[in-house]
Prior knowledge:
Order of helices and strands: EEEHEHHHEEEHHHEHHEEHEE
Structural class: alpha+beta
Bound molecules: adenosine-5'-triphosphate
Strand content: 25-35%
Distance between the termini: 17 Å
Largest sheet: 8 strands, mixed
Amino acid sequence: MKQAAAEAHAKINLTLDVTGKRSDGYHDVCMVMQSIGIHDIVTVCTGTGTGIIELKTTNSAIPTDCHNLAYRAAALFLEKTQMSCDGIRIEIEKNNPIAAGLAGGSTDAAAVLMLLNHLYETQMNEKECMELGLQIGADVPFCLTGGTMLAEGIGEKLTKLEQAPQYAVVLCKPPFAVSTPAIYKAIDSADIMQRPDTSAVLRALKASDAKAIAGLVYNVMQPITADIHPEVNEICAFMKENGALGASMSGSGPSVFGLFTDNEAAQHTKDLLAQQYEETFLTDFCHASLVKL
Ligand code: ATP
């Protein structure tokens, strides 16, 4: 039996723009993505002798069968490499908020691909891993590398950007779920009044201008989600009133993040929000999505 483990980090969208809809139903996006400190721990054992894929997780709210993205990653890996299953056990210590717009499931899937590639010494290169990851979900290719990246296409065309300057990040997930397909559907018929200035963000990243980057965070999906859940805008406003240089929603929501350069203000804001919202965190940016343990 062999075993390996990795941290699988969540991401936020510093920007999210929807630039078109394809004939296959997918949307073209343009997003600046950033890995953050919050992470699951994914452990994979191979050669368990069971002949099947087993999955255990510390959070009973997520599936443990083929509906779990980490399970699907293992199944797809076996299919692609045409290996017979000698028994794979996946354990997920779940810390990333679920259904939060933070790519929590995608990052677990990315970790499983990376760990299986290592344990079975299959030597798939980054491009092959990303192609496989894309079959699981549009965020998986980003989750295989992470850091600060521009994602275009459906999320799979990735360009590495200058490492963003460091912030104290307050992350708050209000206790409701948002349907990503419903938000995409709504955006098709919505008049988009404001879009993120992605070029300005790229310039600010080049200049490592923390104030400018934070002031430019924007997500075109936020008005749509906030129409249904005004709390999203209220939390953003609260963060800014308490010293955030910028605040925005991640993905299709409902998570909201605030970027602070004043650590005390960030801690204070986190403490205040935590009184109302159980899933509130103080975290930071990190340079990679997967960290092998
Ligand atoms: P994204 O930002 O990519 O849209 P998300 O953060 O909004 O993702 P996830 O945390 O990945 O959402 O969870 C979405 C749904 O996927 C959950 O309701 C859950 O049932 C299912 N799911 C499948 N695999 C996982 C996993 N490994 N971790 C969490 N949820 C998972």
